[in-house]
Write a structure and sequence with these properties.
- The protein is α+β, with helices and mostly antiparallel strands.
- Helices cover 30% and strands 25% of the residues.
- It has a 9-stranded antiparallel β-sheet with strand order 1-2-3-4-7-6-5-8-9, with helices on one face.
């Protein structure tokens, strides 16, 4: 009995934790195994699970991405730039896309929550950096209550995304629920630029300031009367303000 108890003490807990004591007493060591021989323990299930979890790659999309897909109904390919996933501990899961489909540029917003009925208008409020907040009208798709689009303002909206560092979005839903999210824009340019190119568009470039040299050259070509009128207006702006 002492040899049997000594052998049981060498087993890992997963072999000795049971509600049937008779099962433990039926365990007999092999004749060639010494009672005090140590059996190397296996990795426990929690340890294996933890190591597997640590080895898995992160599933969170933390940057803007460019994707190409094919519409199963029309077999036509389309591309889109997709925003990174927001911090779910702070914001709702709102997905923002700039889409080029059939040579038409679209802004697409998708959420996990109900926005409005199919083919219904709704409003998205957004603010880029510290600029004034703006509103944009979208319409839900014919087959979705959680996804909407806008084509009329898509190009201007895409250009505005390329000028900022982050964007804050807020949606007031049909059931009076407010959804909000914040997304970084620091790496949005490559993905959005590709989508614009797919639609034959290019990102808007900032206009070059009108230099004094350019003004003097253009001013010298004007008739004396126009020069005098411009000088009068300039004097008024300088002395009185715009």
């Amino acid at each position: 009995m002492r040899r049997k108890n000594a052998f049981l003490n060498t087993l890992p807990p997963c072999f000795t934790q049971t509600d049937n004591p008779a099962l433990l007493l039926s365990v007999r060591p092999h004749p060639r195994v010494k009672a005090n021989a140590m059996i190397k323990p296996y990795f426990s299930v929690p340890a294996l699970a933890l190591s597997s979890f640590l080895a898995l790659p992160s599933q969170a999309a933390d940057s803007w991405s460019y994707q190409q897909q094919s519409d199963p109904l029309t077999n036509q390919s389309y591309s889109y730039a997709q925003s990174p996933r927001p911090d779910r501990s702070l914001y709702d899961n709102i997905k923002l896309q700039i889409v080029c489909k059939q040579q038409q540029l679209q802004v697409v917003v998708e959420t996990e929550s109900l926005i409005a009925s199919q083919n219904s208008p709704f409003v998205v409020e957004y603010q880029i950096d510290q600029q004034p907040a703006l509103k944009m009208n979208l319409t839900t798709f014919a087959d979705s209550k959680r996804k909407g689009f806008n084509q009329e303002n898509a190009k201007a909206f895409a250009d505005s995304l390329l000028t900022g560092q982050k964007i804050f979005i807020r949606i007031n839903t049909l059931i009076k629920k407010t959804l909000s999210s914040e997304m970084l824009l620091t790496d949005a340019a490559p993905a959005i630029g590709k989508v614009l190119g797919d639609c034959g568009l290019s990102a808007a470039t900032a206009s070059t300031p009108y230099s004094l040299a350019e003004f003097e050259q253009a001013f010298a070509k004007l008739p004396p009367e126009q020069q005098q009128n411009i000088l009068v207006k300039l004097k008024k702006i300088i002395t009185e303000g715009p």
